[in-house]
Amino acid sequence: MSLKEVMLDPSTVPNTLLASQSVRHQIRVFFPGLKNTERTSSALTTEESTIFYNSGIRPAIELVASTTVHDWPPSYASETFRSSNGRGHFTETTRVVCAQDVQPFSLALRNNMNHVAWGKNLVFGTEIRGVKNDTEHQPHLDDDVQQRLVQMLNDVKYSHEELTGNWFIDVAVELIISGKAVVWRADCYAPIMQQLFDIPEQVVDDVSGNRNRFEKDVSQHLTEVAGFRAHFSKPAGPFKISYIQAYTTDKSLTYHPTAHHFAKFLTGKIAMDPASKYTDSLLAAYEEAGGKNDVAARLEVRVPISMATQVLRRFTLDLFRNTTLIFPRGLWW
């Protein structure tokens, strides 16, 4: 029996946060052995997290840092007890691993998890978040594109030449007109995928017809105005795309991620409370934005790093006209 190598979108592989190197630079552990069609979440279950700590992390620390292991929780259950306030809220803590212990720790962790059926062949992944507007480039200038990529990767402790193969990067384009709101048409996904990314029509039809891999995001309750999110089960088109997201920047005004929501939300109880200032504050924020904040249509795509300087280089005027709508800024807000 021969084995076939398959490239997977990292966000679809069960994983967990292992360590933070800085505020924006994190190390995650991915478990390909847990990926299956029945699974609906990439987060580890409580049982899996228990095995990972008790059989993987704790024994690895005992081996490489015996003088400090007494500061580590003896088990996952004991740490859950310590961190819980008894009302469903948790207070997380961190432990420091010396630089010289990082490599032996990672090797010991991998070896320990090889004795767990689903823990074999785990993959360490570097994730850098919160750098969306850290660099900007002009798509038509080759040198500018290359220089900004190198600049963005300064936070990674490897030379740029080593960042190939299994590294992925999100590249974006923003469409903006002064004094206007540029928003996506609800039917924008097909021309974007086919004309901009050269994804075959059959692939576009397959992903857009799968509710688990494709979703439209309607704006302002206007059914003809909507961005979209698309996950591909395997690399799509010549740019080997794994994920596409089209949205508008007005959502940043109410962006407020919590356990179950990504934005500010209003409950019926608060809406009926005469003492609540929620709607007044929301109206004031929108009125201020109407006088100051343009709305841009933003398109983000996740590709292998080898494609980072090639993707999103030719957003034509015809494509712009066929995929967007333009409103006066004040009217949109």
Q: How would you explain this protein's 3D organization?
A:
This protein is an alpha+beta fold and 333 residues long. The protein has 3 domains: 10-126, no CATH class; 134-163, no CATH class; 165-332, no CATH class. Helix content is 30%, strand content 22%. It has helices at 46-64, 76-83, 99-113, 142-152, 189-196, 201-208, 268-272, 278-292, 317-323, 329-332, and strands spanning 15-20, 25-30, 123-128, 168-175, 180-184, 214-219, 222-236, 241-248, 297-304, 324-328. The strands form 3 sheets. Strands 4-9-8-7-6 form a 5-stranded antiparallel β-sheet. Strands 1-2-3 form a 3-stranded antiparallel β-sheet, with no helix packed on it. A two-stranded antiparallel sheet has the order 5-10. A hairpin with a 2-residue loop joins strand 6 (214-219) and strand 7 (222-236). Helix 1 (46-64) crosses helix 3 and helix 5 runs antiparallel to helix 6 (201-208). 19% of the residues are buried.
Summarize the structure.
The chain is of the alpha+beta class and 333 residues long.
